[in-house]
Amino acid sequence: MYKYLFFLTASAIPTAAYAQSPSEQALAEIVERQDAGSEQATVADAPRAGTAPRAGEAVITVTANGLGTDLRNTGQSVTVIDRTEIETLQGADPVRALNRVPGLSLSRSGGIGTVTSVNVRGANADQLLVLVDGVRVADQASPSGGFDFGNLLLGTAGKVDVLRGSNSTIWGSEAVGGVIDVSTRTERGLAGSVEFGARDTLFASAAAGAGNDDVFFGLTGSWYETDGFSAAASGTEADGSQQFALGTSAFVNLTPSLELFAHGNFAEGEVEIDGFPAPAFVLADTDDTQKTTRYWGDVGLAYYGNDLTLRAAYSRSDTERANRNGAGAETFASDGSSERLSLRGEYRLLGGLALAFGGDHEWTAFETSFDAAAETEISGAYAQLGWVMGRLAAHAGARVDDHEQFGTHVSFGGDVSYGFGSDWRLRASVGEGFKAPTLYQLLSFYGNTQLDPEESTSYDLGVEKGQRGSGLHLALTGFRRDSDNLIGFGFTAERPSGVYLNTARARAQGIEAEAGVDLAPGLRLAGTYAYVDAEDRTSGLELARRPNHFGTLYADWASSFGLALGADLRIVGPSWDNGANTNRIDGYELLDVRASFGVGDNLELFGRVENVFDTDYQTVAGYGSAGRGVFGGIRARM
Predict the structure, then answer these.
(1) Contacts with 38 (C-beta within 8 Å, 6 or more apart), sequence order
(2) Which conformational region is residue 28 in: left (phi greater than 0), alpha (psi within -120 to 50 degrees), or beta?
(3) Is the dihedral of CA 328, 246, 9, 241 positive or negative?
């Protein structure tokens, strides 16, 4: 039903003569221009989402300090992937875009729609804070509380903003390994695409926007379905999936300096999964399914003054899951939710000195088939001084959080960036992170109300020339993160059936390298590489599913007559599937190639071949991966 609803919705959206970016982008542009010392901007000055930055143009990130800042004015490690790059890569799978971010490794239990975990610089997947339009979207009912990237489609994404390194000073709980913020897509007029390919895979997406300088409303949606392949590598029965996503963005200028904004998102997906049936209890074909329903959004006010910027919001997210066996009987269900009140601001004190500040209060709740409803809450406040003078930028701040169960926690952080020579930059950062125990870890049958938060301290030092995506770009970064009080599952005399305990310590250190160069007009070659040494500091063994070496080499060529060609080569070294380091996962190489051809100004034909050499590989032991696949489609804009 959702498929037909999506196509009906897309066809019924009227085109608009005007377009306007959502409020976060307007705020980011204003703050960036203030940092540069230029005159105050208005909401109308913000660029359209998805516009590729020109050489030397400011790239705005919100993950560094919670508001908008120029990447060149932060010492933290940040990568921004915009809508242009997302469309160049083609397809629905977020893994295709995240593979271009240095320091990110991924694992997946089957095809698109199955559990997909992202490890930033060797951190646990649940130690990554994931936001969509600034709203926290982690599943509060899952044991570890992380976000499953198998439930995210790129069709509704306008930008992916990735911070690598601990930053609980700004973001509070979960920002141990890093932060990923996905902005909902906004478009001028009406744009849409549809593609079809291997395994009867259909992916369609559309976006539309209407408004003027004082009011804007945007709507975007995606539909994905595939017959898939067997999640169990030993299986023969294909496991399909389908997902539907819908997102909205809106704002109204109540006065020249006061804006009312809102976002709303809905996503639902169902995937066939394999299990461990009797009597062998090994991974094999089953008829089990998992249905996930998510909704999230926010509403708030943004104030843009000469010296003061404020953003206040109420947000809510909810994730419901239901597992069923082949007979259709429900075997497990869960519901996790969070509500949040937040205030962020920046006050320009004098010259290049500014004070960023904020506070928030969050209520979280969960319920499962085996656990009664429970809830907890946490409050936090932070302050950060920033100084920008010429090509020097520095920030230092602190945060205090108070949790209903474990009490008070304090986080510190700072960064510095110094530009020198011909577009070179030296950058460094230090940050502390913490992750509050999840409701499941605290209050389930296996819960422990005496748990302390997981803690980390991260450092990085890097040198960079230019900016990603244009001209000559070179970057080399060394990093280290020490983590303590990690929560694991164990047994005690008082809890022989099992209990969550603070027992583990970990360390991750390594280097990230990035390079890009324009070899000829329209031809760009780029790549990333990471060496990550992630180990359990108690046992000395390597952490599971953390390859030491991985990277991506990619090239894109655009002609003057509408033809574009590209290729991505992903190279991943071997890793261990388990913490005991007894089950080895082999390394692999994947090559994807793609092409597109513009027909006039508003129509584009495109296609790609994924896994060109039909590589047989695994990222989770026992689970299969997609073989060679050919896809083709059409993209139109009005």
Answers:
(1) none
(2) alpha
(3) negative
